[in-house]
Amino acid sequence: MDVDLIFKIAAVGILVAVLNILLTRSGREDQALMTSITGLVVVLVIVVQEISELFDLIRDLFGF
Hints:
Layout: H1 3-25, H2 29-62
């Protein structure tokens, strides 16, 4: 596992947390919720890409 992957996920988390706080304090709770959901989707896409690479590596290893 790359350390860069952890930093990417942490950066998305920090950015979403800051935006969530700013939007919530300005009274835009619906946009804060959408920002949180978008951050979750971005992290899930990053993780799915890494899992896909893992499965490709396993398939190449066993010759399927």
